[in-house]
């Protein structure tokens, strides 16, 4: 019986903390400029900046900070979360970013950017605030292609994003979400666009149009049901699964759905729940087996 109690304690320690949160999905990271050593003033400035950004993420989805007295030790750093994220999710993503980014490169670069599904963090030894930059950017598409429906998908992606670009650039927070229903079979598409709030309306429009060209060319024109382009100044994403927290009042209609069988839908949150359920089931089986053997041994001893 003591063995079973110990197993329960170990299971609780391992499983319970991880079931409450899901690590952000890493998308890309890149670096440029020179390097710094761990005992340098720049390193101290960088860790101070990271600490400030994590604290700021508790109350806002975008923030920047400057740390360092001399030009050589000065760090300009910022983060940008998906605008409609709950703040605790944003802060968790930023905290992961500050922990991960320096471990990805060797030697330590003086300028780098790390991109996750829900946030972006970057730092540099030069002014990067209030400056629209198109590169580096991450562009990726769903692996499933619909060769027979490329026209419908391309049209839906282009029109969906064009509508949102107009909405976002004319809003105070440079953010918009929307959707189109009946694009392919019974699938709807969901769209999100966002710019960092420190650039101008015109720069936001330029950035999103650049992202649109990249997304349509690499994903929409290839018959993909999901894709994204995410860079330092703006993000653009679409998917057949809802992925944002804002409510879409209504979806534009592309007409009656086609009848071809759809692929299996995938959701990372559902997968994590299934994994935890499987682990828990295996644990219960192991406990039962141990319990049965313990009872048999006790009977034999009598």
UniProtKB/TrEMBL annotation:
Domain Gnk2-homologous, first and last residues per copy: 24-128, 134-243
Signal peptide start-end: 1-20
Transmembrane portions of the chain: 276-295
A Pfam family it matches: Stress-antifung
Organism superkingdom: Eukaryota
Keyword Transcription regulation attached: no
UniProt keyword annotations, A-Z: Membrane, Repeat, Signal, Transmembrane, Transmembrane helix
UniProt protein name: Gnk2-homologous domain-containing protein
Organism whose genome encodes this protein: Saponaria officinalis (Common soapwort)
């Amino acid at each position: 019986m003591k063995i079973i109690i110990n197993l329960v304690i170990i299971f609780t320690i391992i499983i319970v903390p991880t079931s409450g949160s899901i690590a952000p999905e890493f998308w890309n990271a890149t670096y440029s400029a020179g390097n710094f050593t761990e005992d340098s003033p720049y390193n101290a400035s960088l860790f101070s900046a990271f600490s400030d950004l994590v604290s700021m993420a508790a109350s806002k989805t975008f923030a920047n900070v400057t740390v360092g007295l001399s030009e050589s030790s000065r760090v300009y750093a910022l983060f940008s979360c998906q605008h409609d994220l709950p703040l605790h999710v944003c802060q968790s993503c930023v905290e992961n970013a500050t922990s991960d980014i320096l471990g990805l490169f060797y030697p330590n670069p003086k300028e780098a950017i790390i991109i996750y599904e829900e946030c972006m963090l970057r730092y540099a030894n030069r002014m990067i605030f209030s400056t629209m930059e198109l590169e580096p950017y991450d562009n990726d598409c769903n692996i499933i292609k619909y060769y027979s429906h490329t026209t419908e998908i391309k049209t839906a992606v282009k029109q969906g994003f064009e509508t949102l670009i107009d909405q976002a650039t004319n809003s105070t927070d440079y953010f918009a979400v929307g959707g189109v229903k009946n694009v392919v079979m019974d699938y709807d598409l969901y769209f999100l666009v966002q710019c960092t709030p420190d650039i101008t309306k015109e720069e936001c429009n330029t950035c999103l149009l650049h992202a649109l060209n990249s997304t349509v060319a690499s994903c929409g024109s290839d018959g993909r049901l999901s894709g994204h382009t995410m860079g330092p100044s703006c993000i653009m994403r679409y998917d057949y699964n809802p992925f944002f927290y804002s409510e879409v009042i209504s979806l534009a209609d592309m007409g009656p759905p086609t009848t071809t069988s759809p692929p299996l839908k995938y959701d990372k949150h559902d997968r994590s729940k299934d994994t935890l359920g499987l682990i828990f089931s295996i644990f219960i089986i192991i406990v039962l087996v141990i319990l049965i053997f313990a009872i048999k041994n006790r009977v034999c001893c009598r």
